Amino acid sequence: MTTDxxxxxxxxxxxxxxxxxxxxxxxxxTLLGVQAENPxxxxxxxxxxxxAPRQEDLAAALADGRVIRTHVLxxxxxxxxxxxLRWLLDVTAPRVIPVAAQQLRPxxxxxxxxxxxxxxxxxxxxxxxxxxxxxxxxxxxxxVSAFELMLLLAHLEVHGILCGGVPRDGEHTYALLDDRVPxxxxxxxxxxxxxxxxxxxxxxxxxxxxxxxxxxxLTLTDARRGIAGAGDRLESFEHDGRTYRHAAGESxxxxxxxxxxxxxxxxxxxxxMYRGYQDSRWAIDADGLVERTLGAPIGMALVDGQILAGxxxxxxxxxxxxxxxxxxxxxxxxxxxxxxxxxRYGAYLGLAAHVESIG
Length: 359
Prior knowledge:
14 helices; 3-stranded antiparallel beta sheet; alpha+beta; 5-stranded mixed beta sheet; 44% helix; globular
């Protein structure tokens, strides 16, 4: 019988945490979308899934446009492979667009002027930061508040007019999508839904139809159409009153054996291991250690796929400290695994790593 622990370990493998790949581009292509609201910590979400985490890896993929950071799938930033961006926007944008559109109603009469001003700016001088776009609009007599500009730029990204440009000193910039993303033939919607379902469930599975609907802002009807369209690329099993689907031919990894060293991961709460699900998110807490009503911590320490502590990262000039708030006492092997995970994270940042247990 498949358990929550089996599902969580399975996801470690499907999400590449227990089966890392060569580079950042491969991670993003495999996962289809990686939530990227926090640039520095989401960069680690990508890097930790590679065999040799390096900051330069994702930075290079973003600079040359193999990976794009933009609003897609949900009303937030994601890293998406350039080959997938256009068809993902086509299939998910119709339900994402109204979220920003409602908040932009005060600008409704100015939307055409603002859009023309922004696209003219980026056509002449691409890769502008948000503050530079704001200054240019003010010079044209089209000033907007910082919040309105944030919504407006996201709105234009979801509409496929803008996308992430070449980052500058780690700061997000904007460019015209047509300048960064090659043209592609439009896909039949049913075909696109099938591709989306197959790739999400292969890279995040086992997961449910409600997880898929949440992740890609689909209706349940469209999620089910996608699963049907994926056909024999998927298999399923029943657990705890839910149907879980995964890539065909896959099976749960073997259970951890006594004496096996557990594998630990220090992740932000926006990581796909948490944010990639809604319906079955808490497979990572089979023992019910985390109070659901409190909301999630800023980060988490996973051991063998289970969340054992909240985590907060504190970066200094020479060291990074990981403050853990354990949900139960950690065993000696678990503490060693967390320390190894911290060392790996520290090496990626080029800093010494320390782990502190608090609370």
